[in-house]
Batch of 4 targets.
Target 1
Amino acid sequence: MPPRRQLLLLVALAILLRLPFLNLAVQGDDLYYLFGAEHAQIDPLHPTHARYAFLGQQVDMRGHPHPPLDSWILAGLLAMFDGVREIPFHLAYLVLSVIAVIAMWSLARRFARQPALAALLFLFVPAFVVNGTSFESDLPLLAFWMAAFAFFVSAVDRHGRKSLFAAALCLALAALSAYQAVVAVPILGFYLWQRDRKWIAGWAVVAAPLVVIFGWQLAERLSSGALPATILAGYFQTYNLQSLANKLRNAVALTGHMAWLVFPVLALAAFQIPRWGYGLAAAIAALAAVADPSPLCWASIGAGVVLLVWVVNEMRHGAAGFLHVWILVYFAAALVVFFAGSARYLLPLAAPVAILAANRLYEVRISKWILTACIALQAALGVSLAAVNAYQWNSYRDFVRSVEPQIRNRRVWINSEFGLRFYAEQAGGLPLLLGQAVAPGEMVLSSDLAFPVPFATGGGRLAPVQSAEIRSWLPVRLIGLGSRSAFSAAVFGLRPFDLVNAPIDRIRLSAVVERKPTLSDLPMNSPQAENQIVSGVFQLEDGTWRWMAGRAVLLLKVPAVPSRLAVRFYLPPQSPARRVTVSVNGGYVARAAYDREGLYTLETAEPLTLNEEPATVEIRVDRTFSPPGDRRQLGLILRQVGFITSGEPR
């Protein structure tokens, strides 16, 4: 078949893969890029100057781990269609998938003995099938990364200036899509060094990602007074993202994802290694089995090690080719840079792995029947994962539409991230902040999966209004309540995907119903505590105590006779709080200063006579802190708050 016809068939197949998902709902981290796009409607040059709630806290998008290109693309679509329109948006992003496939074909024609096979292997990488349907920055990065590599290789091979200019443009766009575009510098630099090391213009283009990212950082510094990289580093510290535990999970998960860039049976047939390599892979797989005995975990990690050992072994024997360097340099950078271990992080590696696998399969003369069956299984896996993914996000959209009249008529707080939050905000809901109080008469829309944050019911109780369980009949899972899949993030598990039949998520809309306080003396482990805490007090710990923020509000039943108010608390060593103030119904009743850690009781000097029911008790501290990896602002540890009769021990 002529090459042009093969390319047309590949493009047609790429489009067919996307067509069933054109009406796919907003998913995953799409909403954060959409926040930037919305801000770009009023500040087109600075979409990342948006501020929004993330995991219960207000954050600055200048600290987002991606530059602004994706938000600019979405901003243009928002302006064009006057809001989010799923079908035209996905049609626009389909163009990026086509660019990636055409670039892959160009690279396969240059490096693969079987270009069509290499392109098919690339097309059916599960992460490409799934994440090619989102509005996140991974698809723009992949499209411009692949185009840049294809143009640069052509430019170096033919000394073509037009191709070199196109490569520079695509590298700039890739750099504006994701910081990891800088990894292209050593990879393309290696190719240029091998082929035409004296070409000055080529070296200038190789440096393009560094120049673009540095230029954008400088422009932001001059226009806003802060470097985005500095704000990002601050969030890394605040959320403890670069902790050793996160880095280890990231490394293990990415190794497992390597096994599924090509169907493992084909990978093991293609990438044959010395005995010591299999021994190393078996040892690492055995260690992984300690953490997770599922074969999906340890077998995938072992297969990923086999692939990496094969690349290293080839280079040890003098086969230091462009594709080998591409794999090793990018994978090493992924171990250092990333922390979540998501499958989509390895999309820029799909091309070299597919090409090398196609070349090796040509050499080992694998049976066409086995080859066809494995490609079909890989395609079926990718489509199944994409179908379950679509079902999950569409279910959020459908649920919000079913409760939209209630959201529009009452104040509704959204205790969720992902697409559920996006559609609920579109209907008029508000994001719930960490430790916030929800007053009686208000409602809460929550998800068990999508990172709910603790909140208080303002002296009321939650009454269910409407709920739904998201459960797919297909047993494959990218993410879910009963899943241990690292497809989206290694925090959920270490398997590249999972095979379970558990619910994906449970979502509910609840109303806060007023409930009068029943206790005048409230231990923090009392069953009634949740109903009498209004705000600023967090969940019960060790069955006895609760952290409070800088300000805590609780409701107490007014005692029958005048009584003293007592607050029993502990000042831990790490807390900087030294002054504690207590007020009742808006009036100060007690205050004290403390010079060291310890267990204390702050009491009113005289019994209080209260005529207003209930009594609103407010406790304040002068300073708070945030422990590493904890987003909360903490003051002291509460043990008990209540009225006591004269002479009663505390």
Target 2
Amino acid sequence: MRVTAAVAALAAVLALTAVAGPPPTRRGDQVDDYHGERIADPYRWLEDVTSTETQVWIAAQDAYARSVLDALPGRAGFRARLRALIDYERFGVPQLRAGRYAYTWNRGSDDQDSLWISDDPAARGRLVVDPLARRADGTVSLAGFELAPDGRHLAYALADGGSDWTHWQVHDVAAGRDLPEVLEGTKFTDIAWARDGRSFWYSRYPARAGGGWDDGRQVAIWQHVPGTPQSADRQVYAIDDHPTRNPYPLATEDGRYLVIRVEDGYQTSGLYVLDLAAPQAAALRLFDRWDARYEFLGNDGPVFYVHTTQGAPTGRVVAVDLRKPAPEHWRELVPAAANAITAASLTGGRLLVQYVADLRSLVRVFGSDGRAQGEVVLPGAGTVAGFTGERHATETFFSYTDYTTPRGVYRYEPASGRVTPWRVPAGVIDPGAYVARQFRYRSRDGTEVPLTLVHRRDLPVGTRPLPAVLYGYGGFNVTLLPVYSAARAAWLEAGGLLAVANLRGGGEFGEAWHEAGTRLVKQNVFDDFIAAAEWLLAGGYSSPTQLAIWGASNGGLLVGAVLNQRPELFAAAVPAVGVMDMLRYQLTSANARQWSSDYGLSEVPAEFRALRRYSPLHNTVVGTCYPPTLVMADANDDRVAPWHSYKYAAALQHAQGCANPVPIRIERRAGHGAGAALGKLVEEYADQWAFVAQATGLAPPPLP
């Protein structure tokens, strides 16, 4: 972001003066016509995030926010506790290929995880890349990595300043050095190594004539040979008969097929297949009906194992023969069950299928013929991830966490079913000092919705109202399961309650639960969240002067919409990096139009009417007393553009009918959340919890 001398001078002046309230924001005269309805958009000019006027506005808002946040008595205490709680050794789930283990590591205080490789799972091994060596302020982060099948090369991606854009490099494992080429123009791509390790496939955006990459168009799949420049890469596959479908590569272990995962929204997907033994043959569009999601797991020659929601909203696993791919020839291996499948893998000759059961992970084991072989014994009633690896691997790894247990990594042996700790943190907090209890409440239309309440064991919960934070998401089939967070631990340790609501729109109960919170019925999500707040108040757990709401991204939209609809319920609100202008969200970024599978589009009359009714930007009411609200934005966010938060903060400040503060906190060198420097996260949550504690009456942690 460009900062002019005038902007810097204004920021310096404002920082030295007492800022009594938010600076005024110019209201323009922009009006748009949506299907005959004229909608004012007075803050359209803030969408030009690099203009001098927007820069001046940011500087003024930053000065106002700091005048509010720096004066909070609890900020220093929360900052100290967050720094202490996050300072423990952390390992990522290792990736195993040809006897080599690649994994991430953080000593605890590092701003970013580093990437390591070892030939011995008991040894640290050697450092491959330290993002802090690339930029000392911690704003370059590791965004992904993939070991070649022969273990000779390792491709890894870095992101700068929180951007979704990544650049890939290739590391020669034996030589211990990076190869010279850098691959650019990528976001969200898989790396699919050829079986011989001599090349890999990846997806990238087309180059612009004047330089840079055009993320307003579709990606295509390219093949890269390590040691050669990106300019020598060969395009392998592109979709030219549909404007919004994006192909991403996967490769079969036997080296025979390139599997193409085709994405277009969040409810359906496609799978195409290229036969590498017949390079002139057209791609087989194995699944191209766009009636469900299809996830490739592995293959036995022409027989593909696929996890799908076709005919099964909670998911199932089927075997499909490429020679007879019609549905009537499919062989069902794992039938649909009451519990939703969240992931599946074909590892160690077995199908490892992950379910959501009673808001926790459950992992069932099946033979490749579909015969049930039992369950994986997990460390507790929490959340797992991992279980990936090659078809004949003798070991695989997974992570485990819950609300009071930091993420640890475990080794699983498919043949014996044995689970052993690999790297498990100890002594971070005392899990026995906390309680996590599940409840169910009824939403506005009578639907039962789960909620988990987490708190210190010694608190008089339910006997008198206490400061509480209600958190939710409710979108894109995302499932909220128990996860440890140092940020949440700081709130809980101080004596606050944490309530997590599993709203419709998520994936807790399969695709039907997801679809019940999308498009024309998106209001169900907000009704569920409001009902959760009402349940907490009616049960005496909290009160309108003690209850705060918090959410990020789609959860930021949730908080903004609910804050507008029922401001009297809440003592404070924190909408972070939210989608706030629902009539123009599709202009947010290149991939934003993909969100229409959940939101709909303002170009469609019925969907416009639904969006107009809840869009946070368009539903603030002048003169309403809104609770203290801390809007959070990241200036480098190229997924949900920061102008969403800029415009909403301006609208809320203009509408505010009482003295409650409405600051907007804008982080300059950060994006949508992934890859944020640890130090920046500490400062962010110190601001957030101090703000919420002040509004809800929670006593902050004492200074050490």
Target 3
Amino acid sequence: MKYKIGIDVGGTFTDFLLAFPDGTSKIYKVLSTPDDPSIGLLNGLSEMGSDLGISLEQFLDQVETIVHGTTVTTNAVLTYNGAKTGLLTTAGLRDALEMRRGIREEQYNNRYTNVVPLVPRYLRQPVEERIDYQGDVVESLNPESVEEAVDLFEKEGVESVAICFMNSFANKEHEKRVADIVSKKMPDSYLSVSSNLLPSIRFYDRVSSTVLNSYVGPVLRRYLQSLVAKLKDNNFKGTLLIMQSNGGIVAPEVATDEAAVTLLSGPAAGPVAGVSYTSINGFDDCITVDMGGTSFDAALIKNKTPLVTTEGDINRLRLALPMLDIVTIGAGGGSIGWIDEGGLLRMGPQSAGSQPGPACYDRGGELPTCTDADLILGYLDADYFAGGRMKLNFERAKQAIKTHVADKLNYDVVEAAAGMYNVINVNMASGVREVSVKRGDDPRDFPLVLAGGAGPNHACMIAHELEIPVLIVPKESSIFCAAGMLMSDLKHDFVRTYSATLSQLKKDTFLNYFREMENEGKECLLSEGIPEKRIKNIYALEMRYVKQYHEVNVEVTQEEVYDFNLDEIARQFHRKHNLLYGYSLEEEGTPIELLNIRLTSIGDTEKPAFMEEVFDGEDPSKAFKRHREAYLPAEKKFAELPVFDGFGLKHGNRIAGPAIIEQVNTTTFVTSEYALLVDRYGSFMLFLKDREEEFARRIFK
């Protein structure tokens, strides 16, 4: 028997999906161990082995694949606990890392301070060299300036080095020569070279991404080496794969060399899972939201494809590597409620995390959180949290809310808890607007896919705020990202800068760039064990109207590339520009400028099958547990609500809200406006009651 495991290490919980060979699966969730995430990871694996009646060593011997999303690099950047890094860059440009693009992030805030660069100025060392935008050498490389800088790095105990020269995307020779010098003088250092990591135009984007890669590289390397050793010591002989920010997976060796690709490792699996769970029910588009213990992630998917961006930021630092376009805000089950200077109730972004956690966890936490409010309002059962393995302290939650929120607002505890619940729901709805309304899409046109341990408890209120008629709570919603990791493909991104108007493009140059990237992708995937017949490529061009500042990413087909069909490529650009910005300059005949060409090589992996259930009828009474008092937000009062066992609900069962659905790892609160249906895969479909029959026919046809 061979198992597959998806693992998502979050700020509060570490989630696991154990997939069995017959297509069935089982969910596990343990508290994260921030000081050493591998401890929580091994705790979860040990629990799986124990449930199967075997030791950890016997269990891991039967595990074929582990796909792991990690927050190690993210946390290093957020806490400024990365490696001591030195930067070698073209003389005269070392302050570009701090100057960035010269644009104030908050235009009217004169007190807004610049972000602290990851490399202090004295470790940003100039190198005498210069290459122009066409790749011609203007000033030859001076090796002595490199030697002096490396001597300083050695003296200062620099652990990691980033190399980024002006226009090295057009000619990498100088960077290559400097990398050789650094490798010889500092053989144990971690080295990032911009022309290897991101050979594209825009100097600040490139230097920031290269520095980020060096800053987190040693941290990820130590973690993965330790994890691989621990797994090996416990008899793991299978394949370990690491989740990337672009929604793909790679081998640990690749992740170590390009550590920055893991900076949004965990959240990236959510949209991947969203595609799978919605497409089986006939939806091509959706919005996925994942509410965990610490954060809330939202992403939009169109035509079964998550949106990708190359203009991401982490902790206000630019990362120009391809990543899924995910909006993350500090809104999770552990988000702390507090009163600001103006006397307004706020929720987050501060989080109680897993240690000490919410007040009701009874682990020493004294501040009120979203979870405490959910408990006071009756959405959580103090005796059934985590299936009864973890008892919640109602009185501690009540006291925390009274002391820090209710008394300060002259509310009673229930009013304060209801206010906390409402505020965090509005915060999350705003996060959904960020990925939809602000990009020209109406959220009412998309089913909302709810995930995370805390997400289903707030699902209906988020949807109601946005007037979304249909929601999907996947069977594995509480460990959604862990499930998404087992649905991910191996993926490698490549980019080349080719700056010219479409009329000036040379076909041979254009095609040679693509062929070069295709060969690189094929070589990477073959080395990772993917057969050639399971390799496919996605082609894209980044274009803009001449004299514009920002470009538009346009996906094109292989045929359009190799037929050099520039007319169709131009038409697609005009259409997408009009979609994004509300206008195009097609009729004016404004020239289109190509900036970058991109290719994504994908290795198709074997994925767990969705198991269909036998139709069980509409009656959910077999899953009924009891009645419990819970607060109804619309009615602003408590009522006796039916409570159902989520694992006892079967295909076809219908429940009219209000109701509560309890599972070991999550709770779904169905408000008065919605009804719930169980689809043939065991997921919950929630609909506005006045549209229930319309969607029921679609799902159960």
Target 4
Amino acid sequence: MRWPEDPANQQRPNLTYRSIRVVAREIVQVWFREVDVVDNENIPSEGGAVFIAWHPSGLIDPMLMMATLPGKMSLIAKHTLFKVPILGTIMRASGALPIMRSSDVKSNGTDSKKHNENQLSLVAEAVARGGKLIIFPEGTTHSESDVKRVRTGTARIMEMAIEQSEEEGLAPPSLIPVGLHYSEAHTFRERAAVIVERPMDLPPLPERSGDAAADETERRTWVKEVTSDIENELKRASHATSSWQNRHLIWRARSIVHAERSRASVDAISKPSYAESVLGARRLRAGWEYLAKHDSERTTEIETRATAHFENLDQLGLHPLDIDAKPEELTAKKYIANNIRWLWSVSWMLGIVTWGAILGTLPPYYANRLLTNLAIRKNASQAALGSIKVYSSILLFPIWWVMITVATIWMLLGENSAVRELFASHWLLVYLTDIPLIVVGMILILFWPLTGRAHLVLQANASRSWRVIRRWKRWKDDSIEWDTLRNEQLAIARILTSLGDEMILPGDADWQNPPLGTDDAEVVRMR
């Protein structure tokens, strides 16, 4: 993908940060097969910024935001993370800022509160002077489908930063919600989208009157209101639902609506980008929530029908796309073409690419898998498992590449190596023994990850072709009542599409973004 460029009117991030960001981007590109960044033009060109997001995927969330958001980002993280070997060093080098909550301070209540205020003040000062921070206001990672209760720390940082920027005549800081969306965050080679929402329009700070007690009460009220707005904005940006079952239902319904609109526009049914899928899910969720409030009987009827249909597909081992993409007539031409594409990819994989990828990635992969299984036995959460996978990969893969490079150099160029003697016996290969060790080492260090990346591309092409081949075989299964399934799916899709056409939804030309702290469903209107 093409990463967003750093702002031209701001100081360029230092070399250490840029180097860490390059590593983060490489990991993100390997972990996800598709990453979309949408609406990054919403980021103001002046002033500091606090980027807020929900926190469903542990270490993956901050890494994805660091990789995709332009400029130098500082991460607000619990102070205990900075004590973790290597991770702490990386976080400090990347500009992360430690924060200790008042509950973590072993002292009396007054000292604890003062300590917390001092830490928040230091963070707010960085924001007021143009810094960009990443904060997860929930305060912890989780695997729930809805946003957890938001803590007041983010609102208090904004209060202090706004006040300081006003006192010093600086550009006001912005508070920007970010929607993090994953097809499956903890599964290798899935898809992700980062949606940068518009900056929140915060209410003005209460003027200080000189009465300390009254001023403190007004500021607490302001912080409480802003914290509530932050929670509502995160729910809207994250497409929060009451359960993962509802979330999955919305995504499946979105897929059949996309197929129906493709048919109506006489376009071939194709897989949309993940960002397009996220917008489609946002539209369907907004319309569904609106209809559930104003016509609950109708939504219950549609939901019951759609759930029954998708459960039927699950029992048959089918996906909605299997129904929508089935051609009227099965010809051998496309089947043969996909077999050729699959053979082409596999033939390249059988060469040096896959052998290099196996030697360079298989041992650390299984070591990573062993650590993950140990964490599963200790009942680690899904978010923690995702962090363990990424964190251990950062450590294990480079260590293994160094080890295998040293071993390969010794095997090829060692004084007593049989391979070196073989090279020396050939008039052309003998020149290989004169290559400096440092050059061979640099080539090999790059060879392992590059062959791994090349293997991923070839594997993705082979997997796509193989899925089509398998789908083709399923389509030839006459025991499946394809016409019945297709008619039912078409009927559900047309009901949902007609409902959507009757409403003004996100993405429509006449859509008005909801006021601060208001859910999309609250501003949906019938045409």
